[in-house]
Design goal:
Helix content: 10-25%
Distance between the termini: 49 Å
Number of strands: 24
Shape: globular
Strand content: 25-35%
Mean pLDDT: 82
Radius of gyration: 24 Å
Amino acid sequence: TTTTTTTTVSSSSDCKLIYLCNTQGFDTHGGCMGLHVMDWENNIAAGGGGLLIQSRRELVKPVIDFPNIVGEEDADGGTGGDGGGTGGGVGMNMNLEFPGLFVDQLPNHPCTSPDGTYLYTTTQWGCRRRIIRISLEDGSIAPIQFDIRDCPTSSSHDDDDDYDDDEGDNGRKMASQTLLCLTDNGDAIVSQSTPNSPPTIGLVPSRVLMMAEDDDDGGRKAGGVVLVNPLIKFGAIAATSVFAPSPVSSSTTTTKGNDRIQCFGIVASPQEGKDGPDVEGILLLPPPDSNNDNDNDDANNTKKIPLLVIPHGGPHSCSTTTFIPSYAFLCKQGYAILHTNFRGSTGYGQSFVESLAGNIGRSDVDDVVALTQRALTFQQPHSHLQQQQQLDANRVGVCGGSHGGFLAGHLIGQHPELFKVAAMRNMVSNIAGMVTHTDIPDWCYVEGMGVGSYDWKEFRGPKKDELRLMWDKSPIAHIDKVTAPTLIAIGMADKRVPPSQGIEYYHALTSKGVKTKLLIYEKDDHAIDRVVSEADHWLNIKRWFDEHM
């Protein structure tokens, strides 16, 4: 049993222990969790007290299967079937039923309603982060529907069209939201961001948290959303590190229109002749007024822009609809950005997570390629822009770290006709050469050969046949087909992916005459996130793509 515990105790004499628990997900370093509760008798004065083990109940069961898709998008969207659809500027296409609890830990601060009937937490729901309310009586779950934005009052806003089609703000319904804490009177301090907007802090009143989905009281709009005034906004630069937030005032303005990154959700179905579920991606288009010397205009007044594909690391994590400064920076410089949530990503049920184990280098590669091809056919929905933007199929690059770097190596090796440039950091290049040097040797076995392939009781080196499987699933197996100019960054203090992995790949490419550059950060570990190193790294990435795209 895999168990993560956090206690939350009500203010009354009837206390409870609430904790996360699962019997799956250990091999994949995480997964869909169940939520359990036990009564905690608070009667020390009478000589009693303590946990009542027999009171243990499972409130929320882990979701195993891929969640059902509920509803359909409008004509500009779609849920796939023939290659998927676009987000139409109104949110992600996969309007999923509850996919299960994808929570690392419950909030450290009190996260229950004042009367002890509900638990509030943040979970991953597809590629969004959402705040949910869980009944401590029957385990029923309801998402908290709100939107932090400037409005006349937080309790009234009657123009639905303005909400849905706010010009230049087409990522709003893709927003990710996080519960920061609850106040003493049960209000929630929350943050919200979108791929094209840095975080905003707001206060959600307790009456909204307790509201039923069909309750129109308190400003809930026809779409089921309550508008909440912002308290604090962060700028794009401040969002990168230490920040000095400013309270919202009447002079605060929001960047819109031609100065703003546009974001859309896309869905891709499996490539012809291949099996698998539909997968989601997040497409960012640069502001129309961005100046990129690499932009090409055609005779039809269409601006052709280069595309950078971003597979996430993990691999059992997810690219969410939060604001990521590094990729917003690249997008502002004129590059379209495609975040890809391939099989193995979290937020879509446990079976989706475990389906990748034993299939790395194949199913994840297929999904990223399918999303890339879908993005290249993307057509902007009805737009106020005078000049349409179109992705340039001849200028596609890939950028990723850790497992994302592993995929970058596979993509330029297996699909050199599609991916023309690469930048990777602390990549896995040769699993067979990594297994005895990493702090997670189980990753090499589980991801290379499947769930249950690693003996947690006794470590041993890989056998001859296991080494062959690990090699076959590594980017180094496809090195002979690589032609893309490749930037490699390594942190010499990395214990997760040994620096030798990137160095080996660098020498293999240079020996074949492929243009390659190696960045070495002596004091950095896996993340390469020391201030000076991070700045240097992303500036080098930008220059690399400028030079080769």
